[in-house]
Amino acid sequence: MSYTISQIATALEARFEGDGALSITHVAEPQTAAADALAVAMNPKYGEGLAEGAAQAAMLWDGADWQALGLKAAIFAARPRYALSGLTQLLDAGPDIAPGIHPSAVIDDSAEIGAGAAIGPLVVIGRGVRIGPNARIASHVSIAHSTSIGADVLLSAGVRIGHNVAIGDRFIAQCGAVIGADGFSFVTPEKSAVENARKSLGDTGGATKQSWTRIHSLGGVVIGDDVEFGANSAIDQGTIRPTQVGNGSKIDNLVQIGHNTQIGTDCLLCGLVGIAGSVKVGNRVVLGGQCGVSDNIFIGDDVIAGGGSKMFTNVPAGRVVLGYPAVKMETHVDMQKALRRLPRFMKAQQTAAQNTSEDKK
Prior knowledge:
- It contains five helices and 40 strands.
- A twelve-stranded mixed sheet has the order 8-11-14-17-20-25-28-31-34-37-39-40. It has a ten-stranded parallel sheet with strand order 9-12-15-18-21-26-29-32-35-38, with no helix packed on it. Strands 10-13-16-19-24-27-30-33-36 form a nine-stranded parallel sheet, with no helix packed on it.
- The relative contact order is 0.06.
């Protein structure tokens, strides 16, 4: 599939200069771009690479001299990185899933599959499942009983969706995502060492040896519209009420969301984030990679947590936090500066003490 420069510019609501009829088939980095590629050089520091490649057209930063860069055409967008989202969507053909239902798919007679579905090999769809129109379901996906999924979904290979899950429209799940596994919830007949230690902040209270008993998950999962889950991410069912993810939230690879947790709208959870059970996360919250969130706390709207932050207590709305434990980012920076100065400070204190001791002699 190929597009002309003018077609691309129109689709992106951007302007172009030069030969609008020039045809491209893909995008590439400037230094490796072939003649039929649109080079992506949205910053002056990438412009130097154009001389190494063979691109005839590029997406450039505003004010770039495209002719001096040896190009035949250029596309300019007010916000180039945002334009890149539209460009990649235009050129992404998506997974190769043949239209219709593959003969090896196992679909219960009671399941309802919307019009225009593309269901790949070895897919298993259980009793009472409802799937909206234009679903694309790749190989080896399984969807358990009594689950409903909206229109225009994309389930990549190996996705597992449990029972009693409700998912909105335009949902995307990458390979290996698990939606609606049982929550990790166990209890002992008498108070456990963990309960005592938590209450006393360190004392196990002489708890006796006991085995763990499962608390089963009955609450399911509810996911809104335009939500995405990354590869090998997981969200557990709620115990009584459902675990929830709001409209527009994006979940990266290897993220774990515990039972009963509520994620608001338009949140961004980066790779290896771990959220324990019964957490309430507000709207537009961003958690950087490897953030950890303790159970039964809330994180307010518009919070941003830097990578590796560990949140053990409630975080007020609008706060930017960093560190272990998470504190205001500016406080964390001051703490790290002080920590770096500590060896020098201690050495100065020791020298002063020695001088004082010698003076007394």
